[in-house]
Every structure is written in C-alpha cells, then in structure tokens.
C-alpha cells in the first residue's frame, strides 16, 4: 500500500505514519517529492485496511498496489530515477556508457583499456574481478588484486567503477573499492544475495537472468529495494532461446516495457548478448534507438589475447568510433522523444 | 558449386557451361556481373568434380559452396541485392516503409489508410486479403474483393502493393493484383508453396517463422531462388520464446547476421512482433538503427474498430510522426556506415 | 454454441435444427450419442441468441462454448474418440504403433521394414513419399512411386498406411493409396491445407508445430473438424527450445493436457523429437507411461544407409525388443488407470 | 587428465602421484576401484604433459579428458554412483521417492505429511525451511524452526531429510539438521554456493536451472565435485519454454542424456515442473519409464490450505495410490533394462 501525504503534512505527521507502520511489523519506505511525500508499506501478508491510515493526520489518500511489485513502480515514484554512481549519473539526460574489458587481467591491460575509455568521454569503467564461469576450470578472476587495480584506474582516470560481486564477501570487497556493484544474470534470483546488497549504500547494476520474465526481473529489483537500497539500475543482456546465430537473443522490447511500469533506469549489454564482435555496434545503436539509458560495452586493448570472451570485445579503434556514433544517435533520439506521441 | 567465368568469356562459353550443367540433370543459375558472370549449380546430390568444369572454355575458376545454401549467399552474389517492387525498390539507399492495416476491411478503411501512407512519403502499401488466423472462426479476410480494393489503391495513390498469399490459388490472385507476394511466418516451411512462388515473376516478401533458425530462414529463401525467382526480401517479425511482455521476441541480431552471409535485403515488422501499440515506435527505431532495409508498420484509421490486431496498429498521427523520425534515423545510420570499422 | 437435443427428439426435430442453422449461414455438426444427439454450430461471428434455439421442438438445452475451440472439446463430445484407420483403430484399448522408415527409398528397403513391423504385431506402417526437407537440395521423397510401394505393403502385409501430404495434389494422391493422411509439423498452421484435408474422408494425423501452444494445436485440429472431418489424431513430436542435447524437446505434459480438454486421441513420435537412436526407447516408454494412445517409431533395415534421418532409426532388433516392452508397459498403465484417483 | 594406476600399484605409488599433482598446484581426486585406482587432476589451465606422469612408478596410462567436465563423467568413474543419503541410497536398485510438502508450515502439517510418506514406504522426506520466492513479499519459509521440525520427523519416522539451502548460513544449518542439501534451480549457477557445498560432507541434490543446457548442468555438478564432494544427485524439474499449458516443460530426454555421459544419479520433480495436480501422476510415471533414479513429489495433508504451491500438491490418497503404481512401473522398467539392446 502507498500512503500519499498532504502537501502541507508536517515532518511529524510523516514520522507518525512511519511509526505506526513499523509497530504493525511492516517496513516503511519514504519517498520525499517536490510537492508531496509518499510512504510505501512492504512486508504485509494480505491487504491492509486503508481506512486505518486515511484517518491519520496529514494523510491525503491511500493507494492499493495490485501488482506483485511496489517500489519499482511508477505508482510509488512517478518520475524516472536518476541514479548517482560515483561522480556521475545513470538515468539522466546523458547516455551512460560503461566500458572496459570482460576481466581484469593485468595492470598493463587494464590501464590501456581505461585510457581508451577515458579518451572516449565515457564516465564508467567495467572490468571483472570475480568472474562467474560455467566451468570450474576456467579463469575465475583475480579477486581483490583486480579490485585494487580498478581503484587505481578510478584514481588515475576519474572513471567510476562498475564490477561484479558473486557473494557476500565479494560484495564487501567491491563496496570498498568500486562505485557500483553488479549482480550477474546467473545470480538474479539468488535472493539471499539480493537482500544483502539491498543493505549496501552503493548502487546496484542488476542483470536480467537468461530465463527471467519481466515480472521476475522487476521483482528481483524489488528484493533489493525492499531492503532500503533504492539505487538499482536494470540491465538487459540477452535471453535463452532456440535462436543460435548469437550467443543469446537480445530482447530489446523489454526497454519500453520496463519504462512503462518502472521508474528505474535500464541499460543494455550488447557484448554479452551477442558474443560476437561484428554484432556489437549494430545492437548498441539499436539499444540507444529503443530508448535505453546506457550501454555496457566490452573493449580490450588486445581482444585476441583476452583470457575471457575475447571474441566479443571491441578493439580500441572500433570502440572509439562506436562511441562517437552512439552519441549522435542519442541526441537524435532525445529530440524525437520531445515530440509527444498522440 | 559456383563457376566463375573469365572476364573475356563469350556468350557462347556461358551457354555451353549451362548446357552441360543441364545435361547432367542439374539446374544452372546465371548471375551476370559488371566484370564477370557467375553460374551457380543446384540440384546435385553430393560434390561435383570441379576439374570437369575448370577445363571448359571461358571458365576462370570453380568455388565449392560448403554452406547448406548457395544462391542466398554473398559467394554467389557479393553485392547487396536491390529488389524492384512495382515502381520502387527495397534494399537500395532509400528506407522501404511498407505500411497499412492488418486486414482490408472496407473501401473507406483502406482508402483512409492509404491516404495517410501516401502522405507520409512511403512507397509501399500493405493490407491483408487472405488472413492466416489461429482460429477457424476468426475473420479470414475478404479475398479477391480485398485485392481489387488494393488494386484501386495502387491506381489512385501510386503505392506499390504487398499482400499475403496462403496457397496456390491465392498466389495466382495476388500476382494479378499486387506488386509483391508475402509468404507469412506460418508458411515459411510450406515447401510446396515456396516452390510455387519460386516460379512467380513477382518479388516475394518472406517472413521468418516463429521457430526458424537463421539457417532455416535462409534455406526457405533458397527454396524460392532455386526455382529461379531471385527477388526475395526477408522479414524478421519476432520469435517464440518464454518472454511474455510482448507477443513475440523481436530478434534484431538476425539483421547483421543475415547481412554478413547474404545479399538479400531484410526488413523488420515491429507491429506483429510486439503486438502492442506503445512498443511499435521504439522497436521501429531500433530496427533502423540495427541496419534493416525497411519496416512493415501497421496503421489503421480507427485502430479500436479493427477486425484484426487492432491493439498494435498505430493511429494516423502516430504513424506520421514515426515516419518523420525514422527518416532522420535512417540518414544518421547511413552516415555512420560510411565510416569503415577497423 | 452446442444444442443438446432431448432423448426423445425425432430425426425431424434434428433436421429442422440443422436447417435453421444453415439458413443463418452457419455450419451444423451433428454428433449422435447413445442417449442424446448434440448439434454444434460453427461459423458464427459473435455470440448467438440461445433463446432462439431453445424454443425449437426437441431441443433440451443450449451450451455456450467460451473456449476458442468447440468441436475438439469434451463439451461437444464427452467420450474419447476412437478413430478408425484402415482396418484398425487409434484411441481405443489397444496401443497404436505406427512404425516404418522415415522415407520410402526402394522396394527392398520398404518390404524389409514392413516385414519387421508386421512381425512385431503393429497394425500401422509409416514411410514418407513426400518429405518436407529444410534444404531444397536434400532428398525430397519418391512421390507417387513411393505411394505405390506403400499400397503394395498394405496389400501384402495387411498393414494400414500412414503417410504425409504437403499440398493438395499430395493429399489427393495419399487419399488414393493410403489409410491416413499425415500433416507435418511445418504445415500445422498451413490453414489452406487444413481446410482441404477437412474435406477428406480419410483420417488425419496432425503433428504439433515446433512452436505451437496447446491452444494453437487444438485450433489446428478444429480447422479440420470445422470442415466436417472429425477423424483427427494428434501427435506430439517435440518443440523448439534452447535445450540442445536432443533435436527437439519432447513435451510429454501435453498428453494429459490434451486429454483433459479434448476427446481426440494423441500419439507421440520419440524418433523425430530426439533425433538420436539411444533416446528412442526410453522416450517411447515414457510416452506410454504418460498416457499416449500410440507411438510413431522409425525403424529401418539398415539405419546407417538411410537417405534421411538414419541417426534416429531403430534397427529391426531394437524395434522388436522395444515393441515387446511397450506392450508390457501399456498393460500396466491400463491397469493403473482403472484405479480412480481421488 | 586421468591417471590410471596399475593393478599392482602400491599405496606409496598413489601417494607419490598425488604429491606431485599437488606440488604442481593442482588438485588430485582419488577414485579407488575394485581392480585399479584412478587419479583425476583438476585445476590445471591448459593441457598437461602426459609423458611426465606415465614415467612415474605404478602408473599404467594417462587419459586426456577433452570434455569440459571430468569428475562427472564415466571416463573418471565408469560405474553408476550410488549415493548414500542418511540410512538409504539414491542411484541403487531401489527407486528413491522424496516426498513431502513444498514448505514446512507447522508441526501438525509436517507430521501429518510425514505419516503419509512413511506409510507409503518412501525413505526420504522433503519440506522447505528456506523458500526461494519470486516476490520478496511472499512467504519465505520458517528457517531454523522448520529445520528443527524436520529433525523431529527424522527422529520419529526414520525418514531421511532433504531440504534446500540458499546461502552459506543456510548450508551450515541444513547440514546440522538434515541428510541432504538441496541447491535450487535458481542457484544452479551460484558458483560461490556450489563451491561452498563442495566442501560439505553431506550429499547434494542439485536442481537443473530453468535455462541450463546439459553441459551447464553437468558443469555445475563438476563445481561441487571439484571441491571434493562427490555425492551429487542431479534433478530435472522443467525448463523455460514458450509452452504454456504447464508451469515449465519437463525435459525427460535429459535422463538418458545424463546417463550416457555421467555416473551421477538423476531424479525428476514432476510437481514443480508441471505446477498442476492433475499432471503429477502421469509425469511421475513417465519419469520412471524414461529411467530416472527417483522422484520428488509434493504431498500436503490439505493442499488447498498450503502457503506455497498448493495447486500442485497431491492429497495423501493420491500420493499413496501413485506410490503403489510407480513401484509396479519401476519393477517392469528394471526387468526391461536387463534385456540388452543390440
């Protein structure tokens, strides 16, 4: 249930509402707005009695949320969320480009990649310290050593760091060195981990599972938000289908679908979705055109020597040209969106 | 096998090669090029002896085609095909927009729709006379009566007509009234029908089946081309997956995948793929961005009264604004493509 | 709508009801039962006025059918249909085993296969005369020549012949020589062909499309039945999924799902579903256990020499042992079913 | 790489081989056999030099494993594994039936269910203490309180307890109270958790992810085994497809596919796969027929009052009758399997 406060509700009114919610054993989620404050209630089994809350001082109305998710919706927060990641933003006017190699391999590799990313104008750097690999015998990432290199990249190039954590220890470490914690597709329904990062103060980049429906994707975000961390960025990275010309099938229709229901920003990862170098640029442009808030792009100084997913990484030259093109595309798309469709 | 003739090969040399191929019981496909002519051989079971052909007068070399398809490939025809449809083209520099209602319902409806389509600047009009419906009790289309209305539209608005045929009788009728025969997704592996339209002189718009892999899609085109009709336009319209926020999952990665292997143009149908009005514009723009040669867009003067698929049809105002936007997008994409990726 | 006649309704009452239905432009489907006759109405757009029919002489009641299908349902026909195919039955107490090679290749091959099938005790022989092949350059079947061989098999071994038709000419030929017309998975939504076989007097074996939902499958059967041919046997043969250890994913849960809604018998084809010899026996046994009315099994005298799908065909020895085992299984399953679940 | 010791190799020879492997930084997995011992090496990046090992005392030969998995294969262990779970076994001659409610709700519910399960003759009891729920607002299980009830059930009815853990704390608790740790489908690629349970001394029931291929499934088991826990039981529970008549599509062909490659036992969960009460019995029987080593079956004393997944739970009467039937089925299947297929 959402409780909409009157424009003239006092801080005391709000505190009183929150106190009552917590006394009932539920959780209160305060969303201060320009004109009014909305308080979301989660944790209740079954419907609440709206009359009970409507009589409280300062309450304008209550809204019953019939969807399985609450905090991710535009019911709770009508305007799009702009998520602060380090010294930059995702979900705002600027396109968010998160670029870098699949895995952090060496100081040389990561610094060469970061130089290219910084040169392009992108504000976010990605690189894996902990790699979820299908085989236990594949390269698993360099762990904290890699995180320290990423911290150096941040220091030297001013790039904000996005990197994956696979468990609680990993979250603690990533939190220490990076600006944004990535939850990978295979952990999208690792509910214990979602709850854990829901208590982090760092923003979360949540990748869609290869077999997640829209509802399951949004509910995974809701898991994080229900714990109090409202800074979630969604990421489409391809789904499992019979179609075999790309590694996964990039499901771009989820971008308008998410935007219709949710205030959360959504970015797209064409590199992992396709798994093929030659598809990255066209799919990246399509992602911008469909309205995504940003992109994850793999770029590697020497793709053919990459320890992981080299076949999909762009060369520095390819990446720089693509960056130039998507900026043009993004500008056009923003202009288009200013014309309201009937 | 492909037989590449020498630049100075005579017409007689070519005829001699063809004659030998046909004597062996195979089929010869002549592709005259600016400098050299290529002759494709189909119908052989197992590999042919290349030495046999290489010794013939005027033959430069032979190329063994190891892929399951031959005529659809850039091996046979390195340059992109531009398909003539009525008085316009698909696959050339201009974006091909094929717009109109799902089904032809009445003179008023079809003329109102055509007026909008003509006004936009689009060159192609679509509208179903024969409708493949999941239920035998749903509206099945108005048949020849509808085709006659489409012929009137062509006459009055100068639009080129694209419409579906579901069987041989339908093909004969569509051939008589329209400019391009559409083979629907459900008939993509109706091999008898593919062979039949392979003998038509009209171009074929071939929609991808909901469960077709890239190879199966290209082989369906090969069925048509093997009969001598080389004017095939491919169309992506969404595949069957578990993803349930749209009617089907638009698989845009097939556009670069097709373009890498094949010379055939490929267009995208975001209306049928999504089944939802609000998704059509973003997916249409994504289709242009990924490099499609054109779009199929449903527009209906009164979507809420449509006898078929009304939920996805754009209103005239939505369509006109979308048309304006995709022209801008297309211009940008063309400029981008002029920059060669390393 | 279904019109249930009174037990004492006269033939004249029934004729009168039919006449009225036809005058209204609809189609009447008479189902005589032991106690009462039911008349189904199809062809109406929108709901009919039940009061209109309820006042007619001999009418007991009318039932509105809200499902998209009518004649396939147990509403129209509560008891399971037993379909007569040649001199045997599918859907009755006996398990229907339809065995034989993928394609008819030669007299020797087809007679050797038939000898094995007859020896096992199976009553149905299958073998393709017209083969739907993904590539236009693959072996396409021997056509009428093959049908003549099948007719000889029928004559000599007393086996009932099931074979596929891909178009109207094929249907006419198969009707002439065989006992049951198979509609392949790729033609399951070839609605023109469905209507055509709906006018045939021969029973139809309808294979599920690789991307068909339960509703689409039943509606394809409804297309045939709406034309008056009520002798439809459904066949599950695997669906398209990401799962890659078998050619397709056999979806056995469709067997109880069909049986709950429909009176039509359903058989399973583990050979095409799996595409692998070693999976055929376990999946065949699973199909019996789940309650299927029969099996399609590929058996070839020399699988390694088969022109088509050799990898999945059983050897004669494998087939005979499997036949023995599934008879035991079927007996057990029948005994199990006699115990009513609470 | 696998190192096969000579029949007369001494314990010292084996220890020496293990020592060398560990010195190289790899992990040794000793598999003592009746005649010879096999030592598996994991942890190496790239191929090892076989000559190096072949010269050691007591070594008969080395086998290079080209598959991505090693310890799960029949190369390492040719005979089927029989896994000890509490005082019973999974993978042996007896069918393993693991039955019980989806979630532990109350002492009354769990004892009533256990009484039915014990009465049937089944040896394993299941019931969720930690429930992975799509929504953060759904019932999440009763945690340690539930585990204590399960321990009482074990005490009173002599049933062996199988229950899910979702994170490391959960694993520690489940290890304390139960006999087998279940890893749910959503955690199948939670690699940190797999490694953690790889260090447990309790057997692991590993459920297939809804989007896992055969290779991914086996590699998840390999993750556990590579840490030294060789007691893994695989479980098929349905995959994500477009097919919508059941909750998931039960992919029974994975049973023979697993058995061909791997020595690990595999059980099937028809309750979660179908999500529908009426499908459980036919799919359970099909699972036995296809060769599964056991079943997970949901039974609830009052399905209509279940806090979770009630629609799929069997009533006690349904369960008891099904148990009777599958025992008969299993006996028949075992007899069938004694006849070797040619």
How would you sum up this structure, described in words?
The structure is a homotetramer of 342-residue chains. The two termini of chain A are 32 Å apart. Chain A is an alpha/beta fold. The longest helix of chain A is centred in the last third of the chain and has 23 residues, at 316-338. The mean pLDDT of chain A is 93. Chain A has an 8-stranded parallel β-barrel, surrounded by 6 helices. Chain A has 2 domains: 2-63, Alpha-Beta Plaits; 83-338, Aldolase class I (TIM Barrel, Alpha-Beta Barrel). Helices cover 37% and strands 18% of the residues of chain A.
Q: Short summary of the structure?
A:
Four copies of one chain form a homotetramer. The first copy, chain A, is an alpha/beta fold.
Notable characteristics:
homotetramer; 342 residues; alpha/beta; Alpha-Beta Plaits; TIM Barrel; eight-stranded parallel barrel; four-stranded antiparallel β-sheet; 11 helices; globular
CATH superfamily of the largest domain in chain A: Aldolase class I
* Quaternary form: homotetramer
N-end to C-end Cα span of chain A: 32 Å
Rounded to the nearest angstrom, the radius of gyration of chain A is 21 Å
Structural class of chain A: alpha/beta
Which CATH C-level class of the largest domain in chain A is it? Answer: Alpha Beta
Can you count the beta strands of chain A? 14
- Could you say what the CATH architecture of the largest domain in chain A is? Alpha-Beta Barrel
CATH topology of the largest domain in chain A: TIM Barrel
> How many structural domains does the protein architecture of chain A include?
2
Number of helices of chain A: 11
Largest sheet of chain A: 8 strands, parallel, barrel
